[in-house]
Design a protein that fits this description.
Layout: E1 2-4, H1 25-30, E2 49-51, H2 58-82, H3 88-92, H4 94-104, E3 119-122, H5 128-138, H6 144-148, H7 182-201, E4 213-217, H8 219-223, H9 225-236, E5 242-248, H10 265-272, E6 275-280, H11 284-296, E7 303-308, H12 333-339, H13 352-382, H14 384-395, H15 401-407, H16 418-432, E8 436-440, H17 444-447, E9 456-457, E10 463-464, E11 469-471, H18 476-489, E12 493-499, H19 507-515, E13 521-526, H20 544-549, E14 555-557, H21 562-574, E15 580-583, H22 597-605, E16 609-612, E17 620-624, H23 629-635, E18 642-646, H24 650-654, H25 658-664, E19 672-675, E20 689-691, H26 702-708, H27 713-721
Parallel strand pairs: 3-4, 4-5, 5-7, 6-7, 8-11, 8-12, 9-10, 12-13, 13-15, 14-15, 17-18, 17-19, 19-20
Antiparallel strand pairs: 1-2, 16-18
Length: 723
């Protein structure tokens, strides 16, 4: 049977109130599958045709509806206890959660890192109690005490979902969300990563990757521009394993949604190339059938399901209004729980029937998991080398930094831009780390991070899903989010490139990567200073490197020659604690060949080292980084008492022992000067005088801009003599 999707028109949202509720499971089964009787008369619009799946039986429908209401109760109780949180989404999306965790998603709570599990991302992270409630009901190791401890210090249930890290581990959380638009864009990265994994590891005889990526997002996610960028990428690369559910409740924080939006979002996504559906998000049959159809549709189109919902549904006093967004409903929790059929006087109530139902869900998913394990074992036996590569990818296993810098040949370059050095070294990195891939925001020719013989990722043209080079288009923000999605997915390392000045387009994603300790991510940021020259101040970053350095847990490397670039790139793929930004020059830099190449690599791995040792009593230290190291070396050439310290990475240097830092920067030597073609502020930690650029540049050849802004050995020497 072919059925058109139903779309339910809502009453006027300023006056709508629902006063009649089903209050028991039996009533749920005999009146309304979604647990609420409403006075609305529903109209019909037509979108994507659905092939009707086998209808769920009445008992399962009742169990799902009961679970939806009990999940609502958990959310209400936890938010009330914390006097903080967002009730609107957990109450408005109860049926969606029930269908996802109770029917349509494949997962194993006993093995939450199973590589072929379906992924669920709550892009609207403010509704985090939705996720915590369902993880508890679905059997993940999230005890009820932690659900009760919502938003409290050291709890497993923070205010917004946080990816497992050194701070805590909440099983079932697939990515850090909260900044709107990020989660739904991370989901695009996960879907791309799954396509890549299937292409690299599946064989004709054994399919070990075939899962789906689900994301639940609201108006805020789709108003943020990053979601549009990533949606275009997803459609263009035909990521049909991605299913996005839109919680369309017509309410935003300040106003009703119509106050700030009037687009037809379905037409927008259809124009992108998505398959679109529109349903009543409270109708369990519609949610079930539509998600099943979306999963079964392998037509090269990602899926977008507009779920019309009532924000805060079940709480008469706030439902359908802006007040449902926060904790304004706390005074009405007890009444609302009674209205939806939960027992009076019981908090955090979960019935035995719901626990039994999810026990059966676990058994069903467990059987799927066991079948997959048998396939996986057969695959490993048939493909031992590929299996070893996959295990390294899962564990993110690489050679040590010391081993890696020893295995990469000496660069032996003459004057060379570090972006060019980076191009040579990325070939070595790709060989040493098979699960390393890279991409660019339409700038491969300039940023020089293309992996030769790696193939291009995607659909059509010369692309395949096994390709190691991603073309993000002119979409830096989406690139950052998609890269985070790759890292959250947990199989590949990924770098992405653009001009340094454009990192601000995706700075929010750098922050999330750093917060989430995503060591699988690195950024290749070229054209690093006023040395860019003729393009002018719009393209000459002066504040940007320091702006990255102040992000906690982000390593920022600005190497001064080819051998330091080796260390920087090696560090980016061996570091375990977080992401790395690699800052490369457009213009040629001198090579410090007076220092052994391995000594430069080893010193750069430590963040800072002596690039020129004094030949008399030490009375001056010159610190420099990147393109300014060559100036420091020239200025100090005829200064016997001067030491030059190259500091490509402040963060790595600060992690060294006190003894090493004292050895490089003796505290007894207070006459110190630092030089960098950027803002000066951070360098005063190490030097009493800083030669830098605290204003924007101008359009002229790069050497002229550098000279006019004092970035020359002659000016450095003059400044030292004036001290």
């Amino acid at each position: 049977t072919i059925l058109r999707n139903k779309v339910y028109s809502k009453p006027n949202r300023y006056t709508m109130k629902f006063s009649s509720f089903a209050i028991a499971g039996a009533v749920l089964a005999t009146t309304s599958v979604h647990g609420f009787s409403t006075p609305a008369k529903f109209g019909v619009r037509q979108y994507t045709q659905l092939n009707m799946a086998t209808a769920i039986d009445a008992d399962t429908k009742t169990a799902l509806a009961t679970a939806a209401n009990e999940a609502r109760g958990l959310a209400m109780d936890s938010i009330a206890a914390a006097h903080s949180g967002h009730m609107g989404l957990p109450l408005g999306c109860g049926e969606i959660g029930a269908v996802l965790y109770g029917s349509q998603m494949t997962y194993n709570p006993k093995d939450p890192q199973w590589i072929n599990r379906d992924r669920f991302i709550l892009s609207a992270g403010h509704g985090s109690m939705f996720l915590y409630s369902w993880l508890n009901l679905a059997g993940f190791d999230l005890p009820m005490e932690e659900v009760k401890n919502f938003r409290q210090h050291h709890s497993m249930t923070p205010g917004h979902p946080e990816f497992p890290s050194s701070e805590h581990n909440t099983p079932g959380i697939e990515c850090t969300t909260g900044p709107l638009g990020q989660g739904v864009s991370n989901a695009v990265g996960m879907a791309a990563s799954e396509k890549m994994a299937a292409a690299v590891y599946n064989t004709e005889d054994h399919k070990i990757f075939d899962h789906h990526i689900f994301a639940l997002a609201g108006d805020g996610c789709f108003q943020e521009g990053v979601s549009a960028e990533s949606a275009c990428f997803a459609a263009h690369e035909k990521l049909d394993n991605l299913i996005v559910l839109y919680d369309a409740n017509e309410v935003t924080l300040d106003k009703m949604a119509e106050y700030t939006q009037s687009e037809d979002i379905l037409k927008r996504y259809e124009a992108y190339g998505w398959e679109v559906y529109e349903i009543d998000g409270h109708d369990i049959d519609a949610v079930e059938e539509t998600i099943a159809a979306a999963k079964a549709s392998n037509n090269g189109k990602p899926k977008f399901i507009k779920c019309n919902t009532i924000i805060g549904k079940g709480m008469e006093e706030t439902e359908g209004t802006n007040a449902a967004h926060g904790e304004a409903g706390v005074p009405y929790v007890d009444k609302a729980k009674l209205n939806i059929g939960l027992p009076e006087g019981e908090s955090w109530y979960v019935s035995e029937g719901t626990r039994d139902f999810f026990g059966d869900v676990q058994k069903k998913n467990g059987a799927t998991y066991d079948d997959w394990q048998a396939t996986f074992s057969a695959w490993k036996e048939a493909n031992p080398e590929l299996a070893s590569q996959l295990q390294d990818a899962i564990e993110d296993k690489t050679a040590s930094a010391e081993e890696m810098i020893s295995s990469i040949p000496q660069q032996g370059a003459d004057a060379e831009a570090t972006r060019v050095s980076g191009y040579k070294i990325i070939q070595e990195i790709s060989s040493l780390v098979p699960h390393y891939v890279s991409g660019s925001a339409d700038l491969h020719g300039s940023t020089r991070n293309y992996i030769d013989n790696g193939g291009n990722f995607g659909a059509g043209f010369d692309k395949s899903y096994a390709g190691k080079n991603l073309y993000f288009g002119i979409r830096e923000h989406a690139m950052g989010s998609i890269m985070n999605g790759f890292a959250f997915h947990g199989l590949f390392k990924i770098s992405g490139s653009t001009f340094l000045v454009f990192v601000d387009y995706f700075r929010a994603t750098c922050r999330v990567a750093s917060l989430s300790e995503l060591n699988r991510v690195s950024y290749i940021l070229t054209h690093d200073s006023i040395g860019v020259g003729e393009d002018g101040p719009t393209h000459q970053p002066v504040e940007t490197v320091s702006g990255l350095r102040v992000i906690p847990n982000l390593d920022v490397y600005r190497p001064g020659d080819a051998e330091e670039t080796v260390a920087a790139m090696v560090s980016s793929v061996t570091r375990q604690e977080g992401p790395t930004a690699l800052i490369f020059s457009r213009q040629n830099l001198d090579q410090n060949n007076d220092v052994d190449f391995m000594a430069r690599r080893e010193g750069a791995l430590k963040g800072g080292y002596v690039a020129k040792k004094e030949t008399a009593d030490l009375d001056l230290i010159i610190l420099a980084t990147g393109s300014e190291v060559q100036h420091a070396l020239k200025a100090a050439a005829d200064m016997p008492g001067a030491r030059v310290v190259s500091m490509p990475c402040m963060e790595a240097f600060e992690r060294q022992s006190d003894e090493y830092k004292e050895e490089v920067l003796p505290s007894s030597v207070t006459k110190r000067v630092a030089m960098e073609a950027g803002v000066t502020g951070l360098w005063y930690k190490y030097a009493s005088k800083v030669i830098g650029v605290d204003e924007f540049g101008f359009s002229a050849p790069g050497d002229i801009v550098m000279k006019e802004k004092g970035m020359t050995p002659e000016n450095l020497k003059a400044e030292i003599e004036s001290m």
